[in-house]
Design goal:
9 helices; six-stranded antiparallel beta barrel; elongated; alpha+beta
Amino acid sequence: MLDAINAVDWGAIPGHPDWYEPARAARGLRALADAANLVEAAEASSLLGGGGIVQGHSAAVSPAAAVATPLLLDIAQQGHPAARDAALGLVDEALSSYPHGEYTRVTTSYGTAVPICCAIAHQLRARSALLAGLGKRGRALLADAAEHWRFEIRECVADSNDTAAFGALAGCFPSGVHAAELHVGGEIAVLDEVALEYPPVDGSAEACLRVTGRRPAELPPSAALFPAECGERVH
């Protein structure tokens, strides 16, 4: 774990200068990975929660939290029980906190301007088996992550004045009509009315969304949709 933590250039990750302290992120993660008791885990958590990845007093999250999440999950899997609890608590806090100003998005393998909360949720879904095995707290994190859904478009067909978009849904699209961000080639547009037409079945991710008032040409294959409310999260 220490090699993975040390391999990150924490100083190169952007963050609000008044709230993000890269040295606290690096030291806090190393200390939490090495923690062997409750006191050491609490001290490490204080570093991470006091400007390392979140600023607890202001309920603010930094982009570094998205990078730290898989490392915190490694600590939850391999570390001391006190470190595990602290790591899960930090991930929970990061997912529910709000970013500052221009530091609201991160670059990932599936998008260049992904809201921080959605990037954290993606990491949680990637470790669903681990979290499900960690009891009530792990399952609660998975439930919270499901609210930060992502839909990858594979094919679209016109349906009257609307478009039926077929693709893969990660997370749970809520009932009703919602606004969504459409990410295409680094550009973001807001779709005012999106609804779940056909949900995934039998454990599959395949689903269909109805996009009101849009033509198929506006929704190209490989485009991704995210909750618009996640893109609006800001202090």
